[in-house]
Amino acid sequence: xxxxxxxxxxxxxxxxxxxxxxxxxxxxxxxxxxxxxxxxxxxxxxxxxxxxxxxxxxxxxxxxxxxxxxxxxxxxxxxxxxxxxxxxxxxxxxxxxxxxxxxxxxxxxxxxxxxxxxxxxxxxxxxxxxxxxxxxxxxxxxxxxxxxxxxxxxxxxxxxxxxxxxxxxxxxxxxxxxxxxxxxxxxxxxxxxx
Amino acid sequence: xxxxxxxxxxxxxxxxxxxxxxxxxxxxxxxxxxxxxxxxxxxxxxxxxxxxxxxxxxxxxxxxxxxxxxxxxxxxxxxxxxxxxxxxxxxxxxxxxxxxxxxxxxxxxxxxxxxxxxxxxxxxxxxxxxxxxxxxxxxxxxxxxxxxxxxxxxxxxxxxxxxxxxxxxxxxxxxxxxxxxxxxxxxxxxxxxx
Lengths: 194, 194
Prior knowledge:
The structure is a homodimer.
Chain A: E1 4-6, E2 22-27, E3 34-39, E4 42-46, E5 51-55, H1 61-69, E6 71-77, H2 82-88, H3 98-102, E7 107-108, E8 115-116, E9 121-130, H4 133-139, E10 141-152, E11 156-157, E12 160-161, E13 173-177, E14 180-189
């Protein structure tokens, strides 16, 4: 049973606001090819409409599929998927279908049909590519607009992350480099200023 | 005594690879005005030369100073600076000098003279602005090249983050929204794939 529930688009930026390492999913326009890779370099750029930027190297299979289909997905792996995240970030999709090789099950995004992961992930964002030829070429930086989002109700509650002792396996990963990820720890509530 | 040591430029991207919330510092070209704000939306975009992207709203004083001087700083606050981070992110520099009001001490960046924080921070990056009119206008996304970087040797050791029980106060903050920050917790060492 999936615990995923829709996230209102005006709350979608919160899913990556704290800088998690993500999985990028994509498929060809005709649906015959697909890929999944890891990306540490992404960020929201706008709340409404919800838009994001993500660095995807121009030599990757993901970049080819993104341009072909005009869409991509961002899936947020939980701590229990650290090995999988490192693994899909260390091999190329040009050679085989990583979903099949690694036994990754995907659901189809509700708007664009992008393959998305739920099992082991805390959330996903389905994105429509916004072509920006210059930044794609100069910085490998691609822009997208979030057209649908969903999150596991055990960790994202009423539009907010809820990191607790009982959901550590779903908490986000943050790549320090070389396969070392720091997981979420204590949550600090800053004092309101003034 | 400062524990800051220079970070090799080819390792600079590692300082923000895991998505910390950062402080953005800036000053006017003539040095008479300066500002500090918080930013959750930043990411590396290239290793060599080290380049980064950061979202800075076009209505902010920081954006004005950045364009005036052609430079800005990124300082990475430790967990002990959660209140300060929230505070500088919740007021505007158009009205007063936040450094003076909040008693923030700054050092001058070695290359461009950007005001940078060390006390309570784990690292800083001094950046030269790369003008990109379209993405600045469309997405408030500014690009910069890192020209100098340094980190506290108690938490960034030989080019790598070292998150340990004895340096929790220096560990990075990741903004969940509304003044709630998640701090670094357990570090997971993913298995090498294959």
